[in-house]
Recover the amino acids of this structure.
């Protein structure tokens, strides 16, 4: 359902060209839960941005549900994001001036869904993350873990086929991180496909499939598994 | 979709900037509405038709310091000299000059004063100018009804004499004094002294455009000579400046113990009389432009500030599926809500200010047309002020949402 073939992303400034992704190849099937790891600056976030159509790519081909993303206009990409993708951000990215209900409602408004249905869906998603009684609260009145759960509810509200999570537990303590991870696993078991970028090896280990990005490419996966298990040094000795 | 409800929610939670903008819009609307109305009113006043060919007429005063035995004879000689000048259509001695800001006025009645207790006794204020039969040609006005002065009507004197028994009046005065429309041929009185109305001029203004009755003017065939004499001269428009240039030498050649002052065209006299109004119009226009600019800049600045404050939020909205147009619309709706509230306060303020100016400064009643037109103008300017930063906001990349800084 998500296929990237030789996708490259080059940032060009006056003096230098930076290859954020190089000939990136990936196939993601329905219902998968993938953890994407890699050192800072390796291209994880660029990959996530391109997968979520937040950025365009320089070359290659990216198909989402058979749709060639490279051929879409800005408006078509916005509509497709709204319909197929739910985002969970490290910093939660809730809108501070809107209450919890209004925050979860945002993607549904952009889809033009009628008020009654919006309300039902928002309630359903907030119940799902255990915040059905906090509708009128503002984001800053909630803990970090609760805020991230609101963000997850917002990502789920549009019933997307993909959830893209960028360090979803990066700003949370370990207890809250575990709760959020459990929630994501539950959502995955209910059928959503999840791609999660993380620094946390423990979280990555919990995902059924791991990919490591190094220098804009997918690194040798088996080596990475061993590194995670601690049977190989993270830095190869020469 | 316009998303008005969540926009209102968001505005309610960050009131300060919006409130300041609302006040600014309200003040601009209230002041610009009234200022534009005053400007229009003053422009109408300044450019009003006086009934005279202002570019053909000029006037001047002669102040005689020499010992002249017969001033009235000298006055008539001067008139004759002027009338014989090449380019001059006609010239006349007058005791005051229309539109000059200096002259005489009185109350005239339809009955002698000793009958002032009668029910139909009516008094009307009017300015009056004494001159001989050349006054019409010299002022460039025509008798619409009745007749002009005959030389035999005119009293020329060196000492105060009884007023002549005839007068020619402006239509405005005639209609006010005799609303039944039968004024021509009737008598008007000052005290118990009466004069018959023998002719009507359709339109002519008195010395003061700001008088309560600027259109009420009486011409009487009376020329009382003094050392201070006013003359009105009419030429073709293209000849006027040449004639004005020759006047002084010619008059001093005839008699040199006198000075010529206030030599100026009727249009210039009118402009001098209205100089304060013109200055006010210009000041008000500058004030309006500044107010509108400051408001537009305020809206622009607040939008730029809001956008810089909400960069991440805009990126997030884009990531959640907002099209660029939805971002632009968001800021337009947000601004429109503040603007509409500001306009509502401003319209109320405009009407209140208009009422205050009317009661305290006798300004005409503010026409609602100006309030509505100003409100529409301010609304359009506010939308334009938002468009530039909002378009910039729409171009914020959705990928900003995944940046941690």
């Amino acid at each position: 359902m998500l296929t990237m073939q030789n996708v490259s992303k080059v940032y060009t400034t006056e003096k230098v060209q930076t290859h954020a992704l190089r000939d990136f190849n990936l196939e993601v099937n329905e219902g998968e839960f993938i953890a994407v790891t890699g050192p800072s600056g390796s291209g994880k976030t660029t990959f996530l941005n391109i997968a979520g159509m937040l950025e365009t790519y320089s070359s290659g081909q990216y198909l989402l549900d058979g749709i060639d993303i490279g051929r879409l206009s800005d408006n078509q990409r916005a509509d497709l994001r709204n319909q197929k993708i739910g985002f969970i951000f490290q910093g939660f990215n809730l809108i501070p001036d809107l209450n919890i209900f209004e925050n979860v409602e945002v993607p549904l408004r952009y889809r033009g869904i009628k008020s009654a249905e919006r309300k039902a869906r928002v309630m359903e998603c907030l119940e799902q993350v255990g915040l059905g009684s906090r509708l009128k609260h503002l984001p800053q009145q909630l803990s970090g873990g609760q805020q991230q759960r609101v963000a997850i509810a917002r990502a789920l509200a549009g019933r997307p086929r993909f959830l893209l999570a960028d360090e979803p537990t990066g700003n949370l303590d370990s207890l809250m991180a575990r709760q959020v991870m459990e929630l994501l696993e539950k959502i995955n078991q209910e059928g959503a496909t999840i791609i999660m970028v993380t620094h946390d090896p423990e979280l990555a280990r919990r995902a059924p499939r791991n990919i490591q990005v190094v220098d804009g490419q997918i690194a040798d996966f088996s080596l990475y598994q061993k590194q995670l298990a601690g049977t190989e040094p993270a830095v190869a000795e020469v | 979709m316009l998303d008005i409800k969540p926009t209102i929610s968001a505005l309610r939670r960050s009131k300060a900037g919006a409130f300041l903008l609302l006040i600014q819009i309200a003040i601009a609307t209230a002041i610009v509405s009234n200022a534009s109305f005053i400007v229009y009113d003053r422009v109408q006043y300044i450019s009003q038709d006086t009934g005279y060919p202002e570019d053909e007429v000029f006037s001047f005063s002669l102040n005689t310091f020499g010992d002249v035995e017969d001033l009235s004879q000298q006055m008539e000689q001067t008139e004759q000299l002027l009338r014989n000048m090449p380019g001059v259509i006609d010239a006349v001695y007058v005791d005051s000059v229309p539109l000059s800001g200096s002259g005489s006025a009185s109350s005239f009645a339809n009955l002698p004063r000793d009958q002032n207790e009668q029910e139909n006794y009516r008094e009307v204020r009017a300015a009056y100018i004494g001159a001989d039969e050349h006054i019409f040609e010299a002022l460039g006005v025509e008798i619409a009804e009745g007749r002009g002065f005959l030389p035999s009507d005119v009293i020329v004197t060196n000492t105060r004499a009884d007023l002549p028994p005839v007068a020619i009046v402006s239509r405005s005065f005639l209609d006010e004094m005799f609303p039944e429309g039968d004024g021509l041929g009737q008598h008007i009185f000052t005290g118990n002294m009466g004069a018959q109305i023998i002719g009507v001029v359709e339109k002519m203004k008195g010395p003061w455009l700001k008088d309560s009755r600027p259109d009420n003017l009486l011409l009487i065939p009376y020329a009382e000579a003094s050392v201070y004499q006013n003359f009105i001269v009419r030429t073709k428009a293209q000849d006027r400046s040449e004639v004005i240039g020759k006047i002084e030498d010619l008059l001093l050649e005839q008699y040199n113990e006198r000075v010529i002052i206030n030599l100026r065209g009727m249009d210039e006299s009118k402009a001098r009389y209205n100089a304060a109004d013109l200055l006010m119009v210009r000041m008000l226009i500058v004030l309006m432009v500044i107010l509108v600019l400051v408001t537009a800049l305020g809206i622009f600045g607040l939008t730029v500030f809001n956008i810089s404050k909400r960069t991440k939020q805009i990126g997030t909205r884009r990531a959640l599926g907002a099209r660029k147009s939805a971002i632009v619309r968001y800021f337009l709706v947000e601004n429109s809500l503040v603007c509409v509230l500001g306009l509502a306060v401003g319209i109320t303020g405009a009407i209140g200010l208009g009422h205050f100016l009317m009661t305290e400064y006798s300004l005409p009643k503010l026409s609602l047309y100006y309030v509505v037109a100003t409100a529409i103008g301010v609304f359009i300017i506010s939308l334009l002020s938002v468009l530039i930063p909002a378009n910039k906001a729409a171009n914020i990349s959705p990928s900003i949402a995944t940046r941690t800084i």
In short: Chain A has one domain: 2-99+159-237.
